Amino acid sequence: MVSNRVNGVDGPLKGIRVLDWTMWQFGPVSAAMMGDMGADVIKIEALDGDAGRALSRASTMSLNLAGGRNAYFEACNRNKRGIAVNLKTPEGRDIIYRLVEGADVFVQNFRKGVAERLGIGYDTLREINPRLVYGSASGYGPEGPDAYLPSFDGCGQARAGLMMSATPIGAKVPARISQGVSDQIGAIMLCNGILAALVARNQQGVGQRIDTSHLSANMWLQGLGISMSLMSGTQFGAYDRNNPRNALANMYECGDSRWIQLMHLQADRYWTPFLTALGLTEVIDDPRFATLEERAANAPALVAILDRKFAEKSFDEWDALLRESGDFIYAKVQTIEELQYDSQVIANDYITTFDHPVIGPVKMCNHPNIYSETPAGIWREAPELGQHTEEILVEELGYTWEDIGKLQEAGAIP
Fold it and tell me: Which residues contact residue 121 at a Cβ distance below 8 angstroms, ignoring those fewer than 6 apart?
């Protein structure tokens, strides 16, 4: 078996080797999360590289960084080493087979049938390593009439109902959430499945294949609403700010044009203390709002009262008042750009600074979990195309420099 070199970190996945044959975002982010946790992740690319390397813009955002680096690729492929291999050559496939011998995980997100045609499908690789955990990401699942169809983030949002869930009441155009959230939740669920399979391998001694799709992951993201809708026979619709079921779980614009999101789900419990804190004692006993049902029936009138009240002070003023007045549940509505200045984000290192060897110090969204004994984090920049090919072949697979020359002549490596 090939020795398992790690990145010099002590995360919860230290000692686990992951072979990452993925591209774009869904698959790469799942492997990057494992890299955050200390796994030795080897990114396998074709000789022309992951298509994500060439992405120049994301919505209105330029992705170009110093040294020819790419923000999209860096974010999706941190904490990895990289090799470039031509899998259409026997020699290239043999490299993968030798890596699989000592691997714990293999991840791929190509369309159904591609891995099998190239000789690196699950059935082939498990013959080499029966304990291998094989993670597969797709658009719509491994079975069914659309199993072969390609998918990107917007397709996942659309097919799974997420776009309509995010679309305001009365809007004619469906709303697409930015930043590749469909890929992100897909990556999280794929990583979760792989980790569970590693536990099963440890406990039961078996490797297995895990399939996660845009469709399944985005449905699970909305799983509460889907399940409740199916059980109750009623539709779980989008929020209507002007006519909410519970006006104390609604958003309001403050006097400085900042918004506050209230989340008092136990409305009766908070009704009197909250209205007292706001200085609306005259509303407490208003017969239109005597019960939750009556407040729901007269919601537009109650929202109008709260709109006028919140417009009297800035968010900071309301924040100070509510903190002093009781144990209320609310949050400031923030932009993505504001997160780096949020005191809680700073205190918990949710955005961390990584000293990139090419770009210099950069801020990145940190691994979401905090481990008391085996810290996760950003340890390595995304690899340049094929950066560690010769290192891995010579130092870990036992190829000689003469072998390297022959592999280059055969077109198996760059």
Answer: 115
Q: Compute the distance between CA of residue 77 and CA of residue 382 in angstroms, rounded to an integer.
A: 5
Residue 277 dihedral angles phi and psi, to the nearest 5°: -60, -35
Query: Average pLDDT, stretch 235-254?
Result: 92
Distance, CA of 178 to CA of 291 (rounded, Å): 39
Quote the pLDDT of residue 54. 86
Per the prediction, the chain carries an average pLDDT of 94
Helix axes 214-221, 223-232, angle to 10 degrees: 70
Residue 13 CA to residue 6 CA, distance in Å, equals: 10
- Domains for the chain: give ranges and CATH numbers: 17-223+374-409 (3.40.50.10540), 251-337 (3.30.1540.10)
**Residue 3: pLDDT above 90?**
no
Q: At what angle do helices 267-278 and 315-325 cross, to 10 degrees?
A: 120
Residue with tokens 């060439």: 54
For 245-400, where are the alpha helices, taking DSSP H only?
A: 267-278, 281-284, 292-297, 299-310, 315-325, 343-347, 389-395
Query: Strand, helix or coil at 92?
Result: helix
| Chain position carrying tokens 């009262």 | 305
φ/ψ of 45, rounded to 5, equals -125, 155
3-state secondary structure of 165: helix
Residue 308 has which token pair?
């006028």
Q: Taking the model in full, what pTM does it have?
A: 0.93
HSE (side-chain half, CA atoms, 13 Å) at 62: 5
Q: Is the pLDDT of residue 391 over 70?
A: yes
For 83-96, give one letter per residue: b (16+ CB within 10 A) or e. bbbbbeeebbbebb
Q: What is the dihedral of CA 384, 388, 390, 396, to 10 degrees?
A: -170
SS3 334: coil
- Is the pLDDT score of 66 beyond 90? no
Tell me the three state secondary structure of residue 80: strand
- Asked whether the beta carbons of 329 and 262 are under 8 A apart, the reply is yes
Residue 216 exposed, middle or buried by CB count within 10 Å (0-12, 13-18, 19+): buried
Show the tokens assigned to 357: 């060897």
The tens digit of pLDDT for each residue in 279-303 reads 999 999 999 999 999 999 999 999 9
Phi/psi at 63 (5° precision): -105, 0
414/401 Cα distance (integer angstroms):
14
